Amino acid sequence: MTSRTKTYLLHGGLFLITLITTTMAGAEWMFGRLFIPLEGMKTLGWNEFLAGFQFSIPFLSILTVHEFGHYIVARANRVRVTLPFYIPIWLGIGQGIGTLGAFIRIQDYINSRRKYFDIGVAGPLAGFALALVVLWYGFTHLPPPEYIFTIHPEYQKWGLAYGQFAYENQPPGQNIGLGDTLLFSFFKTYVADPMRVPHPYEMVHYPYLLAGYLALFFTALNLIPIGQLDGGHILYALIGRERFRWVAPALFILFAFYAGLGSFRPTDFAIATDEGFYEKLGYFGLYIFMLYLAFSRISENRLTVLLITLSVVVAQLALSWWQPAWEGYSGFLVFVFVLGRLLGIYHPETELQEPLGTKRTVLGWLALLVFILCFSPRPFLIS
Description:
Strand order of the largest sheet: 1-2
Membrane topology: Multi-pass membrane protein
Largest sheet: 2 strands, antiparallel
Distance between the termini: 53 Å
Main location: membrane
Number of domains: 2
Shape: globular
GO cellular component, one term: membrane
Order of helices and strands: HHHEEHHEHHHHHHHHE
Number of helices: 13
């Protein structure tokens, strides 16, 4: 067996495993049950697994189109890249989507600002185009509102007014809903039959809506204009090396500031017991250390990194004291750490700084508009 054949088998095998894991995860979201037997809960079977393809096929199609957008344009620019590596993961507890995504590995040094732009912009725009089709189909083919009673028969006692009663007095974290983006809100308001649009906490049971929404979410993450994300490639090409070295860290600091806003407030430390106070103080210390690590690649000077970290924390506490109701989205903190510590916030320098031209410039700003349309300040509602 040749090395090329082994490589193809690896890529194909990872894709097939990811197809299985995303199908299982999709079925768990659709039916609100698990494949793993739990006491007092009916497990999912073969029929539910087959139904899960309604999630996995559109979601993986969008992911694949995104990655092959990068791949095809890279090959057109004579840049050696690998086929997509899919990352399967199935948690078995109904809290994942069956994958950590996919990536291609660039095997050549890219010395051109224009090539970075072409490769970076192709994936998100290609995936976004298919996501629009999936969302259109999902919102124009919604089942009758009574469909939710097949998932939650206990809601029948309230009828279609279940949203007023079903979510009261439930344990924290029990309800998970999809947030809003400008584009998702447009589809709900102007494309779908308003009588069939489900409650936000029930949209996870609608596979095409879930697949389309997740596509918007991951498109927005990829288009964040920082580092070596697709958005970073695009912005670097648009504004050039010198400006990007100032803009990228500023955007990253703002992103981290928003993510952690409200996670800790001055009033949180007004705890009656010493044990509670020191426990809260310990978590606060871990939070500061996490931010320090996330900011550590902004500068080689550790004192500068420490000053940035403490400035962000103090500003968060001050704003939380002034406006206690204002808060960010702590779910972004994991991505802040990964982006700052692992992926990096700066962009590799390129020898060729050729101008993009009018067409590419317009396409670049269009991609950043797509980011705005897809981004949600609170992508998932958990209560």
